[in-house]
Amino acid sequence: MKPFLVTLYAVFLFAMVIGFYVAHSESEALVEDNYYEKATGYFTTRELEDSLGLKILLPDVFRKGENEVIVKLFEQDEPLRGAEVFFSACGVKDDRYDTTLAMIETEPGVYRAGITLPYHGKCLMKVDIATSSINTGRKWFTDIR
């Protein structure tokens, strides 16, 4: 029984050392710099959004080729006018096609931009919103079909 436990301990120790090595050398942005400060800011911003009654409606379907991106913003159930809104699309495996666009307010609270997505696969989408009262945004992954 004792040799079994020693072997099990050695295998566990080896796996743990390999795990730390891989995590350190291939983090793939899983660990962010200043994580605690950013997390605190995140929750503070969400509380401010709730107190302002901010609602953000995001697009959900993207296809390879031309896409029209429409973001709708509401504050206290009224259209949010005059915000600076930027849309970013980032390829997960290939950053050659990373794009950031300024969105244009076409109707009260409705912001639009056109984007060409030249590939299929996973993509990180991001919307940044700036008003006189708040700077916030949303990030999400989507499949480009």
Note the quaternary state here: single chain
Topology, number of strands: 9
Q: Helix/strand/pairing class, anyone?
A: alpha+beta
Which range does the strand content fall in?
Answer: 35-45%
Q: Which architecture name of the domain at 53-144 does CATH use?
A: Sandwich
What is the CATH domain class of the domain at 53-144?
Mainly Beta
Which H/E pattern describes the elements? HHEEEEEEEEE
Structure at a glance:
With 145 residues, this protein is of the alpha+beta class. The protein has helices at 2-25, 35-52, and strands at 54-57, 65-75, 78-79, 84-91, 99-102, 104-107, 110-117, 121-130, 135-144.
What can you tell me about this protein's structure?
The protein has about 140 residues and is α+β, with helices and mostly antiparallel strands. The protein has a domain at about 55-145: Macroglobulin (MG2) domain (Immunoglobulin-like, Sandwich). About 30% of the residues lie in helices and about 40% in strands. Strands 1, 2, 3, 6 and 7 form a five-stranded antiparallel beta sheet that branches. The protein is elongated.
List its traits:
single chain; 145 residues; alpha+beta; 5-stranded antiparallel β-sheet; 2 helices
Question: Topology of this protein?
Answer:
Blueprint: H1 2-25, H2 35-52, E1 54-57, E2 65-75, E3 78-79, E4 84-91, E5 99-102, E6 104-107, E7 110-117, E8 121-130, E9 135-144
Antiparallel strand pairs: 1-2, 2-3, 2-7, 4-5, 4-8, 6-7, 8-9
